[in-house]
Amino acid sequence: MGTIVCQTCNSTIEHFEDEKVSVLYTHNHNCHSCDTAASEK
User: Fold this and answer.
1) What is 1-36 written as a DSSP string?
2) How far is CA 17 from CA 22, 32, 33, 38, in A?
3) Which domain of life is it from (predicted)?
4) φ and ψ at 40, to 5 degrees?
5) Amino acid 29: pLDDT
6) What tens digit of pLDDT does each residue of 1-41 get?
7) What is the Cα–Cα distance from 41 to 36, expressed in whole angstroms?
8) Is the CB of residue 13 less than 8 Å from the CB of residue 7?
9) Gap between the Cα atoms of 5 and 25, Å rounded
10) What is the pTM of this model?
């Protein structure tokens, strides 16, 4: 099981199937938390 995590706010974006347990960090990946914070400003 793998997890994609937002590098900006550290929230979980998505889970994916993988043979190993892994965490991938990304930015600008349609993060709901970051999009919400940006729209409130």
Assistant:
1) -EEEEETTT--EEEEE--SS-EEEEESSS--HHHHH
2) 10, 21, 23, 30
3) Bacteria
4) -80, -20
5) 60
6) 899 999 888 888 889 998 889 999 987 667 777 767 667 76
7) 9
8) no
9) 5
10) 0.67
